[in-house]
Amino acid sequence: MRAITVNEYGGTPSLTEVPTPQPGPGQVLIKLRAASVNPGDLQIASGVFRPAPATFPMVLGADGEGVVEAVGAGTTRFSSGDELFGQLLIAPLGSAGTYAEYVSVTEEAPLTRVPSGLDPELAAALPTAGSTALGVVDSLEPLKGKTVLIVGAGGGVGSFATQFAARSSANVIANVRAGAAERMRSYGATETIDHTAVSLPDAIRLAHPDGIDALIDLVNDAEGFAALASLVRPGGTAVTTRYAADPGALENAGVTGINFALQASSELLDRVADAVVAGLIVPPPITRITLDDAPAALKQLATGRADGKTVITL
Q1: Cα 198 from chain centroid?
Q2: What global pTM score does this model have?
Q3: How far apart are CA 139 and CA 201, in angstroms?
Q4: Terminus-to-terminus CA distance in the chain, angstroms?
């Protein structure tokens, strides 16, 4: 089968031929129809993020949607023909990558059936971005009446987080470039700030001299995160998805620091999908590409200028 792989940490992602997997006991073989591209895929490929041991050649990708083509012995949760989506960040990394035509994975993985009304590309866009956003917002509840700054609001996680926080009655400040400001306001953001036009910390201090209640930082390293966490008033919370928080230092300032790590689950997937199907959450813009286009798309993603989601159609 065709897949996007790297042969070592730091290798250049390329389109290659690898053996088509077969389902072992308790596994399902999924013929993938779509796979979502996430910044974390690049971090894993580079070796910067190593949440588990890896196997090489490493097939990239964690999010996918497809149809069960075959099941292994003893499999009971899913059957051939089921349409599934999920997040397959499973050890060893690369063994269940979704930038591929097929994937074989345990039926106990964070998978769930695609609800009616959700097309393959949109289903593939939801697992990491939607689940991370919902998980982060859950960690900050209750949010009613609180002021929340979301840094990196224009990307996949940020687009979902803005909406989930707004639906929890938070006053959301979305940090995005000017071109995405209207979209953020349609999601429920009450303010937008373009950090390329003004100093983000200065703009926050001017508009909110008493500080903000919560920070959701999806993009910054430790130094950048610490600077923005200083904007959070005592009693507030600062969350990073980049493992950039120093909880001890923040505690000394009266702020709760959280290095958020997604615990993917079928329950979270169902909650995100149900919200999208019900029209409560609007999916971010989706750029559709082919597997042949994926290496170039990953190079673009490395620039850090994400707007919405990129999905590989298979």
Answers
A1: 27
A2: 0.95
A3: 24
A4: 11
Distance CA 269, CA 43 (A): 23
**Are 29 and 19 spatial neighbours (Cβ–Cβ below 8 Å)?**
no
Amino acid letter, 253: A
Q: What is the pLDDT of residues 218-273, one digit of tens each?
A: 999 999 999 999 999 999 999 999 999 999 999 999 999 999 999 999 999 999 99
Mind listing the pLDDT tens digit for each residue in 178-205? 999 999 999 999 999 999 999 999 999 9
Q: Among candidates 39, 206, 204, 66, which has minimal Cα distance to 123?
A: 66
In angstroms, rounded to a whole number, what is the distance separating the alpha carbons of residues 242 and 156?
15
Residue 88 has pLDDT above 70, yes or no: yes
Distances (CA, A) of 117 to 81, 121, 123, 165: 17, 12, 10, 24
Q: Which of 15, 32, 156, 7 is nearest to 96 (CA)?
A: 32
- Nearest CA-CA partner of 224 in 276, 129, 292, 149: 149
Q: Which residues contact 209 (CB under 8 A, 6 or more apart)?
A: none
